[in-house]
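Possible regression after last week's pipeline update?

I re-ran a chain I had predicted before the update to compare outputs. Posting the input and the new output here so someone can diff against the archived version. Not blocking, just want to make sure nothing changed silently.
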Amino acid sequence: MAYAIIGSGHIGSAIAGHFARVGIEAVIANTRGPQSLAELVAALDGKVKAVALQEALQAEVIFLAIPFPALQDFASSGGNFTGKLVIDTTNAHVDLGGRLSSDLVAKALPGAIVVKAFNQLSASILASDPSVNGGRRVMFVSSNDEAASAKVAEVASKLGFAPIQLGRLDGGGRLLQFVGGPLVLHNLIELLRDAA
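New output (post-update):
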């Protein structure tokens, strides 16, 4: 399975760091081009490769790690998202009038299978080792597609997190909504049975 991280800010860099840490191949891209990512790639010992945006959009699984206000510009980048699994890590930071940010992502990227995940932690905590005091940091996952949710939970587990699937976006996704979502910015640890 091919993984791409779109966005090289704090969240995208944190996710890239986890791929590098566990040795899973991934690419990272932004709108400024691969040369702008040389320092980040060097810091990750070249374990995550910088590519052009259009190349990254060919991946099967895309971590959307851009600022939410950049969504419409990104959507007009010319990518074909049909059948792509898009992990929405964005946070709107504004009240969307009851709408879910992931629904807006799905609308902007027609054909994408959207999964909300990797958004509930601050960037500094997300970047840190998910192994904590004999347990693993919790990563919530929500999607209208049960199989996609399971795939993202599997990826989160491979990256060292303890995934908890929350069901559909209108239920679980609402819990992860940045404005008002009760699970956002909670750094929860799942203790391993033998550590409890």
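Follow-up from reviewer: compared with the archived run. The mean pLDDT is 91. Marking as no regression found.
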